[in-house]
Amino acid sequence: MKTAVLITAMSVTTILLRALPFLLFRRRTPKYVTYLGRVLPPAMIGLLVVYCLKDITPGIRPYGIPELIAAACVVIVQVLKRNSLVSILAGTVIYMVLVQKMF
Amino acid sequence: MKMRTLRQAFYRSIPVLAGYVVLGTGFGILMRDAGYGVLWTAAMSIFIYAGSMQYVGVGLLSGGASVLTAAITTVMVNARHLFYSISMIDTYRDSGKYKPYLIFALTDETYSLLCDGKTPEGTDPELYRFLLSLFNQSYWVAGSVTGSLIGGVLPFSTEGISFSMTALFIAAFTEQWLTAGDHVPALTGVLCTFFCLVLFGREGFLIPAMLLITLVLTLLRKREEGRI
User: Fold this and answer.
1) Which run of H or E residues covers position B62?
2) What is the spatial distance between Cα B216 and Cα B188, in angstroms, rounded to a whole number?
3) Any B CB within 8 A of A25 CB
4) Which of A24, A86, B4, B41 could join B148 in a cystine, given CB atoms 3.0 to 4.6 angstroms apart?
5) Chain B residues in contact with A49 (beta carbon < 8 A)
6) Out of A15, A17, A74, whose CB is closest to B171?
């Protein structure tokens, strides 16, 4: 019972966070919010990239080298092919080989 | 057009498939180790559907946290969703019957696939967004249930496969960099986050980073207006 109540609390809170901006700005979106809607996505993607790489330890083996190589590979393949699936696959496979066989 | 929409939504969701099945399985294993059965695991993945929050939630459940603690922790861990939603207001404006689900299912990964507002050529945009969101959640639920049922028994090493999530964000970042004329927002995001990571450490930098990004972008807008 306690478990169900806690899960409900987490569920409702998450839903409220996701829905709140939509409820607040239902009629007219203020210009400032529209501006944020335009500039936040690229900034947030940048944030998520840094967030994913936060556990790299530059001072300790393997010094984040597998992450750097794999990340560079994703960027290069994306620039050349402009296909996210291909670049993500290439980066992930290279990363798995690096952490399992080399580092 | 429906078939094409379905195919495109599935095709674009494949990177998330790999990541969610792995991360979901990890969550299922955690729940199993904490003594919770497959139904609780499925319930969390269906009704909460927020990756990092569910990982934290395992601790809340097994530690017997109060409802208030659970709610406050959720706000702390998931506050970033406010920012995602703000930037999706216009994109989801005309989503009609799909809108409630689209808002509910706006995870980091789904956001990163839909936030540019573009949809593949020759597809129904609203249906595309709905199917993509639904596919992503089904991978998450499938992964968690699998983890809960089979535990840690796999025939090959999957170490490092969760890099697919990182790769997904890097690819999205690169693609928007190539298409955007203005690189200031992207640079603001990276630099502010890195600054906060150094300043606050890896446990508590996410919310400060979001606030700093919003502040810097707000100041930049003033400057932009001043020029015009």
Assistant:
1) helix B51-62
2) 7
3) yes
4) B41
5) 166, 169-170, 173, 190
6) A74
What integer is the mean pLDDT of B161-166? 77
Q: Inform me whether the C-beta atom of residue B159 falls under 8 Å from chain A C-beta atoms.
A: yes
What is the pTM assigned to this prediction?
Answer: 0.78
pLDDT at B225: 64
Do A102 and A64 reside in the same domain of the chain? Answer: yes
Cβ separation A22–B164 shorter than 8 A: no
CA B57-B102-B141 angle, to 5 degrees, is 45
Q: Where are the alpha helices (DSSP H) in A1-103?
A: 2-24, 31-52, 65-81, 84-97
Which residues constitute the domain of residue A3? 1-52
CB contact under 8 A, A44 and B75: no
Whether A59 and A94 map to the same domain: the answer is yes
Predicted local confidence at residue A88, as pLDDT: 84
A42 and A79 share a domain?
no
In chain A, residues with a C-beta closer than 8 Å to the C-beta of B11 are: 85
CB contacts, 8 Å: A37 with chain B? 86-90
Is A38 found in the same domain as A5? Answer: yes
A13-22, B132-141, B145-154, range with the lowest pLDDT: B145-154
Total domains, chain A: 2
Same domain, A81 and A65: yes
Whether residues A72 and A95 fall in one domain: yes
Whether A84 contacts B15, CB under 8 Å? yes
pLDDT per position in chain A (103 positions), as tens? 789 999 999 999 999 999 999 999 887 778 888 888 788 888 988 988 998 898 888 888 888 999 999 999 999 999 999 887 788 889 989 998 999 988 7
The CA distance from B162 to B112, in Å, is 16
Together in a domain, A40 and A13:
yes
Cβ-contact B177, B186 below 8 angstroms: yes
Does A70 lie in the same domain as A43?
A: no
